[in-house]
Amino acid sequence: MPSASSPNKTALTVFLAALALIGGVLAAVYMTAPKTTVIESGTLLQQPRALPAFQLVDETGAAFTNAQLQGRWTLIFPGFTYCPDICPTTLGLLKTVQSQLGARADALQVLLFSVDPERDTPAVMQRYVHFFSPAFKGATAPEPALREFAQALGVAYAKVPGATEQSYTMDHSAALVLINPRGEIAGYFTPPHRVEALVKDLGALIENGA
């Protein structure tokens, strides 16, 4: 005759087996979960956002599409070559970041996304970005492709008339858009930009691959 404690023992055994199963599942999830990286100089999206198909023209006159965002991290800086202050300051800062990343800089491309296609021809962009670094790229597009790409990035810009037709300036977002190696928007680095923080954050992203 089974003892009165047998049902309790059976229930305990089932409970312990269930705990072991749950523990195994949680361990598997933990082992397979993607690494997470916390950045201090901006915000990472909880879920990276895919970019729609686009076509820009780069500083060599070649097409710049989604394919050029694959395989490495990209920092997109919206600006224009006639910018008197923020753009050259930011590109100069990114040159320093690139230098301090050392060998890790090979996993990162810097792209000036010009919001001034009227004046920023491929030749103009090439001279401008290569003044800061021969590895930097530039790209732009005529309307409406320019606005469509800007909206996909979450970038705003507006033309501000000057004293003459050609002396206008451009107001634009100053955040750096971070694109992951799958060509998705991964986050934003917001001003004021600091070399030390960007080197730390970008270095961690490159090393962790996340």
UniProtKB/TrEMBL annotation:
<feature type="domain" description="Thioredoxin">
    <location>
        <begin position="45"/>
        <end position="207"/>
    </location>
</feature>
<dbReference type="Pfam" id="PF02630">
    <property type="entry name" value="SCO1-SenC"/>
</dbReference>
<dbReference type="InterPro" id="IPR036249">
    <property type="entry name" value="Thioredoxin-like_sf"/>
</dbReference>
<dbReference type="InterPro" id="IPR003782">
    <property type="entry name" value="SCO1/SenC"/>
</dbReference>
<keyword id="KW-0186">Copper</keyword>
<dbReference type="InterPro" id="IPR013766">
    <property type="entry name" value="Thioredoxin_domain"/>
</dbReference>
<comment type="similarity">
    <text>Belongs to the SCO1/2 family.</text>
</comment>
<protein>
    <submittedName>
        <fullName>SCO family protein</fullName>
    </submittedName>
</protein>
